[in-house]
């Protein structure tokens, strides 16, 4: 935790499990400190603080409004159910708090636009909580994909994020409740898949999206398993699968004419401070010399080491932007809101395609 009086002072709205990770990240980030935490009752907030050994200096609030009224809070992290994001993110921006919002950012792009408009109107920085975007490995992978000699022309992408939490989760988790996290697996897992695909194509939106037949919805109409394809005018394509019904898988494959990038832990590295990626380059494969049984050469394994975990890196980057805005060195950066909005647009299109009976949906930005 920073002792610097200029450190960004964070308030957290809610005691969700992900809040534990963010509390630790904020305390480790040298430019941030945890100032307050709020829950729907002061007892729950106090219990959370005690259980997770939060510093005694952290203020405890029994409702979200009180935290937002704290003038010492510079920024808020909001891990509330997605259905509550638009309400509390807008209120936070109106009370001049910078907004770090857990993913999925909103139930729809219309809701997200309300959040982004409030942040822009009040000069507040916005960022969603897609942590893997901030791991140094991600920048190194982008360098590899941008190297035409190594990777060539991008042709196809596939991402898959699934896990099977069991029947109790499917019955009672907020992630399967229409009024809380009504996007289900598409929001919880598909957000990562879509973001990874857009990241690989430099955030160029696809021309169209087509959900695959066979999506599974629960009794409340919440998606618990689905898959989709995306298509670009130049012939590039992508597919993804997200589910609460399959064995845990965190895969990303980006295929080019000369190289192939593969990850088996793209949203959450196997080790906090290390990121692994395999990269197969054309120089490794001389087709004229291929012998039987040697069609698949061993790819290079690239390792990126970092001092901090990806959640700490995210907090540091967000806090740095907040500090610059506070010092009037810059206006809120628009890059992160754009990434969020494009991800939400594609997510909306997948959901729309499912509800239209698996018809293609054109992307209109």
Automatic annotation (TrEMBL):
It comes from the Eukaryota. SUPFAM superfamilies: Glyceraldehyde-3-phosphate dehydrogenase-like, C-terminal domain, NAD(P)-binding Rossmann-fold domains. InterPro entries: Gfo/Idh/MocA-like_OxRdtase_N, GFO_IDH_MocA-like_dom, NAD(P)-bd_dom_sf. GO terms for molecular function: nucleotide binding. Residues 145-261 form the GFO/IDH/MocA-like oxidoreductase domain. Residues 8-127 form the Gfo/Idh/MocA-like oxidoreductase N-terminal domain. PANTHER family: OXIDOREDUCTASE FAMILY, NAD-BINDING ROSSMANN FOLD PROTEIN, PTHR46368. Belongs to the Gfo/Idh/MocA family. This is Gfo/Idh/MocA-like oxidoreductase N-terminal domain-containing protein.
């Amino acid at each position: 935790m920073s002792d610097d009086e200029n450190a960004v002072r964070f308030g957290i709205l809610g005691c969700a499990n992900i809040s534990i990770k963010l509390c630790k990240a904020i305390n480790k980030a040298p430019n941030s400190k945890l100032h307050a935490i709020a829950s729907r009752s002061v007892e729950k907030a106090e219990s959370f603080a005690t259980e997770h050994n939060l510093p005694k200096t952290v203020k405890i609030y029994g409702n979200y409004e009180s935290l937002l009224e704290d003038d010492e809070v510079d920024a808020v992290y909001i891990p509330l159910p997605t259905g509550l994001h638009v309400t509390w993110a807008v209120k936070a921006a109106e009370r001049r708090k910078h907004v770090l919002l857990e993913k999925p950012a909103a139930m729809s792009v219309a809701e997200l636009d309300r959040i982004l408009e409030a942040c822009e109107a009040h000069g507040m920085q916005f960022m969603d909580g897609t942590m893997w975007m901030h791991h140094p490995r991600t920048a190194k992978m982008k360098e590899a994909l941008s190297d035409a000699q190594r990777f060539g022309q991008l042709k196809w992408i596939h991402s898959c994020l699934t896990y099977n939490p069991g029947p109790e989760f499917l019955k009672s988790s907020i992630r399967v409740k229409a009024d809380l996290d009504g996007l289900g697996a598409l929001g919880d897992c598909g957000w990562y898949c879509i973001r990874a695909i857009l990241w690989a194509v430099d955030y160029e939106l696809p021309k169209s999206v087509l959900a695959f037949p066979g999506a599974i919805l629960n009794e409340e109409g919440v998606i618990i398993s689905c898959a989709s394809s995306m298509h670009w005018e130049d012939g590039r394509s992508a597919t993804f699968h997200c589910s609460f019904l399959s064995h845990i898988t965190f895969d990303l494959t980006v295929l080019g004419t000369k190289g192939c990038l593969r990850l088996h832990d793209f949203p959450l590295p196997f080790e906090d401070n290390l990121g692994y990626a395999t990269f197969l380059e054309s120089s490794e494969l001389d087709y004229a010399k291929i012998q039987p049984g040697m069609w698949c050469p061993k790819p290079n394994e690239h390792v990126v080491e970092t001092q901090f975990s990806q959640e700490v890196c995210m907090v540091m980057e967000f806090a740095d932007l907040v500090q610059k805005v506070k010092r009037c060195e810059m206006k809120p950066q628009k890059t992160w809101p754009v990434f969020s909005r494009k991800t939400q647009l594609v997510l909306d299109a997948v959901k729309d395609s499912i509800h239209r009976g698996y018809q293609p949906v054109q992307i209109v930005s």
